[in-house]
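User: My instructor asked us to take a sequence, write out its structure as tokens, and then describe one feature of it. I'm not sure where to start. Here is the sequence I was given:
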Amino acid sequence: MSKIGIAFSGGLTASEIADCAARAESLGYESVWVAEGHGGDQFAILAACALRTRRIRLGTAISSVFVRTAPTIAMSAATVDELSGGRFVLGLGSSHRVQVGPEHGVEYAKPIDRVRDTVAIVRALLREGEVRHAGETVRIEGFKLWFRPFRGEPPIYLSALFPKMLELCGEIADGVILTRSTLASAAAARARVAAGAARAGRDAAAIEVTSLLPASVAPDRDAAIAAARPGLAFYAGFFPRYNRLLAESGFPGEAAAIASAWAAGDAAGAARAVSDEMIAATGIAGTPDECRERLEAYRGAGLDLPIISPFSRGPDAKERFLAAIEACAP
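Assistant: Let's start with the prediction itself. The structure tokens for your sequence are:
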């Protein structure tokens, strides 16, 4: 059976996500991933999913290393890992400057060093039960757990968009979480991951390459493309790094037009600047048959684990998520 994951980034309540996770497991999905952002407490949601499922892996995609302390992340990870019987994957990332400071009031500085320090602290604390750390960005004078983790070394995946973070994945991570990938993304990411792994004397082949893939499923391809357009406009307009990613993925004109319209407060104009080709190249959009074909193309291009990421808000959001889960089931 082909591996596939499902990711949730808002639009549903915790109970609704747990319902969807149970349905995904029954259909053969390999993993469930929950974002942080504004969609609820990801660790609490995953704990609910853990109690509703038996087999499926459960991961954060991702937990920000800036808005939670490293010991807090470690304790949260250990809790979900124990409740799930060792099915948890800790996905970490640096998030974005436009979110961390303005939304959380936390200084955003040296993101790669912050990720490195956080991974070191989390691993040491879960393995040894206590930690002291004097890093480039984080200093822990001493922290000791008052419980025994279910596993001392749950897997840690890192989100990465560009070469330096991809190479850090190769050095220290068990997996990499890409996003909005094209068919060329996995091969390019593997080359950078391999470079980092070589420096650390690690086997790059053991590092799983995954990607969050926006998914829009409809009976008609045009309708699916249209439904995906506002979400892509938001990501390319609001987040400078996603805009850069899309430009480097072959869409510099569209990326520039989206950024310009968004900066002017013209969300509708930003959406109009999103081309059908950009949507088709960076995610899953179309009829159920077309979406399944696209997933196979990503697997054929070297992606170990495609993770569909539907986007829906409003009273019918759960039904839309379930429709995508059903349509893309292995």
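For the description part of your assignment, you could build on this observation: The two ends are 6 Å apart (CA to CA). Try explaining in your own words what that tells you about the chain.
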